[in-house]
Amino acid sequence: NMLTATVKTGGVLNNKYGSFRHNDMIGLKYGSMVKSHDGKGFVYLLHPTPALWTQVVPHRTQILYLPDISFISMYLDLKPGKVVIESGTGSGSFSHSLARTIAPTGHLYTFEYHELRVETAKKEFIEHNLTDIVTIEHRDVLANGFGKVGIADAVFLDLPAPWDAVAAAKEALRRDTIGRVCSFSPCIEQVQRTALALDEHGFADIRMYECLVKDYEVRTLPMPDIEEAINGQKVNFKLNKNDRKKRKLESGANTPTGENGSSSEVMLSKPTDQARGHTSYLTFAILAPEVKN
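RE: above sequence
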């Protein structure tokens, strides 16, 4: 379990593992273990990163997680110095990752129509020293656009009707280089309408992806020599059921491995039974630069 804490002189962190005094944390290196006041529990001090913040951020809205965040950042070609427009801000999970990716010379303009969410996110950006990189504005971009012209390298849309923001996205993108846009939508009907709007406004290379994570179990097993395996099967055929089990256990415990043994090790993997489900569809498109005569 992870949680956030603002460490202050004289402060105390209380959780189910015990009571932890802030004075015991001050001056320690990240990664250090701090024991509770009674010595029974402990916590580790972790360096705050956007990836960790995504796991502990208060959910004011549905948030983006690391698989989608990394995929979007790659396809939008984000790197230090880029200017990005985001709408809406939501809980600010993606905003933190964007800020880290484009720092120190880039800038993020993020828009949110819900005033309370704007104030909460603004407070977090101040606490996390991101105000030099992030500008947040209370604005309904579906009705009023972004109010930006020709400044952005990329636009990210996480809106209920992203097709209504395509024209504003085109206006905000730079025209002296390739502009990129991504729309994050949970429903395929949203993807269809957004793709049509992108095509109507001159965007190209329109693609939709779904990013699903599949976990694999990996283990190492001994692989006996083929001749040894054949001889072993011949012996097993002559034994009764109990003797086979006993021989299997004994051979498993004494199987030699490595170059000097009669068997080697192989690494096997298989997908786990549980797979993480659908989050959203990611629709990407590019806007070619204007050709000047």
